[in-house]
Write a structure and sequence with these properties.
This protein is of the alpha/beta class. It is 47% helix and 14% strand. The chain is built from 24 helices and 15 strands. Strands 8-7-9-10-11-14-15 form a seven-stranded mixed beta sheet, sandwiched between helices. A six-stranded mixed beta sheet has the order 1-3-2-4-5-6, sandwiched between helices. Strands 12-13 form a two-stranded antiparallel sheet. A hairpin with a 2-residue loop joins strand 12 and strand 13.
């Protein structure tokens, strides 16, 4: 009761103060009566009033203060005991000084009917385990009150619980762990001239039951942890927040010991934002709200959006605020022709390049044959990819013939089934182009295509076809007739000879090594890699950032005017004026049985029997 009054009236994190007092000298715990006594004095009660409330004599209170309470508080404040004896105003001023970390500054309420953003006050990715979910809820409640230290404790328990139970951590919780640590250590970082920058990552939590968002956030959480934990003494942190675990194996230690030398004077605070991915909204309300909040939360850059449609709709809001947009997943050709691309950078490979290589692969594999295209006519991305495929098919009329098209992938599944029955036995290949989650049926319907009895038919998908769902569907069939008959064209794969775990690229090697420890073997996808590179791109710019200059201007001068480049997980990051990558990577992967016998462990991929396996790499020049 007293503690709640202190929180409400004084805005002081009294729970953390009590914890620090108990650790400050002899580690003897404060009794409940001691805490009540301290609380009453902080609320302005006189000694006689305190004595009447807690039923102790004046002399007993004096003895308890002099022999037990004042020495511990004086040691914590690093002053002589005589200076604070009966001087509760001095103690109160110490607690109200924001630099000491006890003054509560509850974060603003960011959410509205059209916006869901979180630094730690809301969790989108909940586990099925009720106890872990309850830890997440307690963490968010503490964060909403401004109890960042307590929130950090609960987030750490939730992270460790998921890691132990499922063999991998929850990347969203990893991000909030970072954010809470920065809030509790602001004074420490300020003393060392380490600047905290705020980024926002916009992901579609409701698309494919959060699978896409999880893949993206793994890359984000990984690079944020590398940057932030290097600034701290990580062994004590591990002992404090992960007491059940060897401190050298805690989240803080394994990320802080990364070999990547990045962000030496920088810390990253990241807001996780849910994008409803609603293509039928008149404009992007998520982007509009985020741009409106930019000044309040000191936002310097955004990573997102997932779909090409949402990205294009969002750009005008970010451009209007001078905010950099680094895109890690949109590939539509329309994004190559923006009216205002000064602050736009995309890490993925545009459709015209992906489609050219995909068609080339089909020509070389099928030699001669007929092709059907299945896409979503309501998606600008899907239409863009389809247009690029048809353009390239026209170059190989002697080899491949376009047999038919179906543009309602996001519509009624029975209509799609009728189309597939009509082309059964008449086509040698299907190019499958699901949208980026703007219509929920699209992803569901591709399951019907991938499970067809088309043993002679090669199904070639765009990057949106690269889903773990496909592996589950194959495992359900338990049939090898489709082995290497399902392929996809993506920008990165774990086994890429150039940018994979054993490739020539040392940044990619480090990315895979750390990713295995955090998320389990091979659970990093192309979406994780491009998200990592998007943050890396911004981070390298922040390392050169001058407060006198806009980040948007500095990035354009460095990447688009001077044509400088940096090494990322997915290869060399270099950009044209329109924001497209120079020489973007292309990887062809296939679904096949895993022929390698791995020892089973807690971190093995849950779909070990079927995997997306690497077939070949390609890099287009002079694009």
């Amino acid at each position: 009761m007293i503690e709640q009054q202190i929180i409400e009236r004084l805005g002081i994190n009294i729970e953390r103060f009590f914890e620090d007092v108990e650790r400050s000298l002899d580690r003897q715990l404060l009794s409940e009566r001691d805490k009540q006594m301290i609380g009453l004095f902080l609320l302005g009660k006189r000694r006689k009033q305190v004595a009447d409330i807690i039923h102790l004599s004046d002399a007993e209170i004096g003895n308890r203060l002099s022999n037990h309470i004042y020495p511990k508080i004086a040691h914590l404040m690093q002053i002589e005991q005589g200076e604070i004896a009966n001087n509760w105003t001095l103690i109160l001023n110490f607690l109200l000084d924001a630099g000491n970390g006890y003054k509560l500054e509850p974060p603003p309420d960011l959410n509205s009917d059209h916006f869901q953003g979180s630094f730690g006050g809301q969790v989108f990715l909940h586990p099925s385990h009720p106890q872990i979910a309850q830890l997440q809820i307690r963490a968010t409640q503490r964060y909403q009150q401004g109890f960042y230290y307590q929130a950090l404790l609960f987030f750490a328990k939730a992270w460790y619980g998921e890691q132990q139970r499922y063999g991998r951590g929850n990347p969203e919780i990893g991000i909030y762990l970072n954010n809470c640590l920065l809030e509790t250590q602001r004074a420490f970082l300020q003393q060392r001239n380490i600047i905290i920058y705020t980024l926002a990552v916009v992901v579609p939590f409701y698309h494919n039951q959060g699978a896409i968002a999880t893949e993206i956030l793994r890359g984000v959480a990984q690079i944020q942890s590398i940057v932030n934990y290097q600034h701290f003494d990580r062994t004590p942190l591990g002992m404090e927040f992960f007491p059940e675990q060897n401190p050298w194996e805690s989240l803080f230690s394994i990320c802080g010991d990364s070999s990547l030398p990045i962000g030496r004077r920088i810390a990253l605070r990241i807001m996780v934002v849910n994008d409803t991915n609603n293509v039928y909204a008149p404009y992007n309300q998520t982007a509009e709200k985020l741009a409106t909040l930019a000044d309040e939360i000191e936002l310097v850059a955004v990573v997102g959006h997932y779909s090409s449609e949402m990205t294009q709709a969002a750009l005008k809001f970010y451009n209007g605020k001078g905010i950099v947009l680094a895109n890690a997943s949109s590939t539509s050709n329309q994004l190559s022709h923006l009216e205002d691309s000064i602050g736009f950078y995309r890490l993925t490979t545009q459709d015209r390049i992906n489609a050219a290589y995909l068609v080339e692969y089909l020509v070389n594999t099928l030699v001669k044959g007929k092709i059907a295209i299945i896409y979503n006519e309501n998606s600008s991305y899907s239409c863009s990819y389809r247009h690029s495929v048809k353009e390239n098919l026209a170059k190989y009329l002697h080899s491949l013939e376009l047999h038919s098209e179906y543009g309602q992938l996001g519509g009624d599944i029975y209509h799609l089934q009728n189309f597939l029955q009509r082309i059964q036995g008449q086509v040698d290949g299907i190019v499958l182009i699901p949208d980026g989650g703007i219509e929920p049926n699209s992803l569901h319907n591709i399951g019907l295509v991938s499970r067809l009895s088309l043993s002679r038919c090669l199904i070639a998908g765009s990057a949106t076809f690269y889903q773990e769902n496909v592996l589950h569907w194959m495992q359900e069939r338990d049939s090898s007739e489709f082995s290497r008959r399902l392929i996809a064209c993506i920008p990165w794969h774990w086994d890429s000879p150039e940018n994979g775990c054993n490739g020539k690229n040392t940044v990619a090697q480090a990315f895979c090594q750390l990713g295995t420890r955090l998320w389990g073997s091979r659970n990093l996808t192309w979406r994780s890699a491009t998200a990592f590179d998007a943050i890396l791109l911004i981070l390298k710019s922040l390392e050169r950032h001058s407060p006198q200059q806009k980040l948007l201007v500095e990035m354009r001068q460095f990447f688009k005017v001077q044509h400088q480049s940096i090494q990322g997980v997915t290869g060399l990051l270099q950009f044209h004026e329109n924001g497209d990558r120079v020489c973007p990577p292309v990887e062809i992967v296939t679904v096949a049985r895993n022929q390698v016998s791995h020892p089973k462990s807690a971190t093995d991929n849950i779909s070990q029997e079927w995997q997306w396996q690497h077939l070949r790499s390609h890099e287009f020049k002079n694009t």
